[in-house]
């Protein structure tokens, strides 16, 4: 069991996990992020600290026998209780989950003989390689996102004249109606020049116009697992003259990337293969992001697929491949799929939409 | 301006704000919670620290001239940069926003000459009294929640046979379609005995049956501001024999609570008025929660309206009044509205649904 395995690794140190992806991974707890709750782990003990009102739920959902309760739903009390429990011990290093609320973490640190160190060092490796059950959940999540993308594209020319925000609302509602738990990250509907700001633009009150490429990047959560896919579509009219070649280059880069996934491949090398494809087709310097990222309980998680990555692909990893061309003040193109690393290569689990022109 | 006012209060100390309600309140920044970004405040300076890729967006949205950038979107780098900036100063106290990501906060604490103290002490008082613009946004948010509640009740007897989760999905989609940014907190659809677990139950795979009271507690976000309202409905059939009297008692307690809101009223006294109403009607000990909470940029914020509260109501505060009767293993009843404290009393801004029986 993964919790036992982690505890054995602690070797005299401790770890504190907050409500979020790591807690779900370790215990199955699905409660909300702002729940006053933390899990203290040492080699010997696994103790949930929570408010008295949540004790029954925590015992049931997490299957834990050690629960220490504080009177009220206050993060400071939770942190102080954890600090008390830590003070009874000898060691002085505690790995802290990045998702632990600051109110809890600060209270632990407040009375500090202990060194709070980066929990990613012990939590991230656990979640990198997905089990068969996790891969199945990723596929179900990808299927919902793909269905909603297809339904969005079916809206067709009626999208022209909507604001980006209105289309994002339609997408959000469809994700939920089809069984997703809402967007896995803020929905990107980036029309015309907005498509060229892949890092900062989500959606806004800009009206989508005829002839504009629209970058649609969204995913949902199914059974806790995220999806993340991107298409670029011209809902009506004739796009800028450079657009068809840019789209073809991105499609070629996507295929090169998916084809290059295999166990043992350096993530930086995979990024280079994708980047070269765009460079050779005349779009040097237009791909201003990395190639992709891991995906699982969170839409963005390790490994990183980029020029400076030092990860190596392993069977069971799930990563995105998302090449793009970003031409400031003109438009953007991006295509994205999730790829599961298999024993021999990679399998794209999204049904990538390869036609920027809508069928009549 | 609120940012200036806060800076003047700092008096030699510093404050660090993460992406979330306080940052939005102070600067208008609406970006997502997991953005690598923090704002460092001292009496003299206001410096945003973020990844280089977000500099333009941060400058534009926050209207700040001092932006310090780190190369990558990594919380540890952000925290280390803030620690560097703090080390140039003399004082040794920093107020830390509860919503600051732990990855950033831990890095500040990592190299600690500074004492990290509870930021709620300085941030919460700023947000307690709502401006006219904030009150207008709360009303718009309440209106969307009320519309969706009405539409949910209109589904009528067809709700019987749905799972709680399926009905929650319908509610979520309707909130988004009507202009909300999604649920303000996990949607509660608590049927039959589930209604008696007000602290822990949200919705699950239980089928809603004929004759069961169903507690519907949800809100959304409009222009950044939350709504939160509850109704209790029997979608079909005849409820347990004690239910009508319980419903009438909760309705009376709600009215007593709304009627008792006025500036200068102790929050604990308001709680007692609501609680007495239930006690006198034979439901002593069945009201196992507090009476309410503040609402604004977050669905739950100070003040607390409960037996141990030490807050006093002021004009412009927005609070919930949410009496309930919780009978373990049988059913629950709750009604809830948001009340804005006026100069003379209180104004309920939700259109409370007072009929548990559906019209034929």
Strand order of the largest sheet of chain A: 4-3-2-1-5-6
Order of helices and strands of chain A: HEHEEHEHEHEHHHEEEEEHHEEEEEEE
Please count the beta strands of chain A (DSSP E, at least 2 residues each).
18
> How large is the share of residues in beta strands of chain A?
15-25%
Number of domains of chain A: 2
Judging by the overall fold, what is the CATH architecture of the largest domain in chain A?
Alpha-Beta Complex
Class by alpha and beta content of chain A: alpha+beta
- Major sheet attributes of chain A: 6 strands, mixed
What's the level 1 CATH class of the largest domain in chain A?
Alpha Beta
What is the overall pLDDT average of chain A? 93
Q: Classify the helix fraction of chain A into a percent range.
A: 25-40%
Unreliable stretches covering 5 or more consecutive residues of chain A: none
In whole angstroms, the N-to-C terminal distance of chain A is 54 Å
Mind telling me the C-alpha Rg of chain A?
23 Å
CATH topology of the largest domain in chain A: Creatine Amidinohydrolase
The gross shape of chain A turns out to be: elongated
Give the largest interface pair and sizes: A-B, 43 and 44 residues
Name the CATH superfamily classification of the largest domain in chain A. Answer: Creatinase/methionine aminopeptidase superfamily
What does this structure look like?
- The structure is a homodimer of 360-residue chains.
- Chain A is of the alpha+beta class and 360 residues long.
- The first copy, chain A, has two domains: 2-126, Creatinase/prolidase N-terminal domain (Creatine Amidinohydrolase, Chain A, domain 1, 3-Layer(aba) Sandwich), CATH 3.40.350.10; 132-348, Alpha-Beta Complex (Creatine Amidinohydrolase).
- Chain A has helices at residues 2-10, 21-27, 55-62, 75-87, 102-110, 120-128, 132-154, 164-177, 243-260, 267-283; strands at 14-17, 37-41, 46-51, 67-70, 93-96, 115-118, 188-191, 213-218, 221-222, 225-226, 229-234, 292-294, 301-305, 318-321, 324-327, 331-334, 337-341, 346-348.
- In chain A, helix 4 (75-87) runs parallel beside helix 5 (102-110) and helix 9 (243-260) packs antiparallel against helix 10.
- The N and C termini of chain A lie far apart (54 Å).
- The model of chain A has no long low-confidence stretch (mean pLDDT 93).
